[in-house]
């Protein structure tokens, strides 16, 4: 049985930032900060770590 966990807020915000158009890393961090009114700021390690966990899950189409 797989371990089911709730989606963490930074992951949700990152997916939200990708919902309307593709963005590169720096723009993703800026969009996450804008969506959260500056409350959440993703550093490079958190940003790319989250993306790395999402890729195998195929959460969005790869182009």
Can you describe what's shown?
With 63 residues, the chain is mostly helical. The chain has helices at residues 9-18, 25-35, 44-54. Helix 1 crosses helix 2. The longest helix has 11 residues, at 25-35. The protein is globular and about 35 Å long. The model has no long low-confidence stretch (mean pLDDT 86).
Brief account:
The chain is built from 3 helices and no strands. By secondary structure, it is an all-alpha fold.
Mean pLDDT: 86
What structural class is derived from the secondary structure elements? mainly alpha
What integer value in Å does the Rg equal?
12 Å
**Quantity of strands, as a count:** 0
Helix and strand element order: HHH
Fraction in beta strands: under 5%
Cα separation of the termini: 31 Å
- How helical, in percent, are the residues? 40-55%
> Quick one: biggest sheet?
none
- Flag low-confidence runs: none
How would the global form be characterised? globular
Number of helices: 3
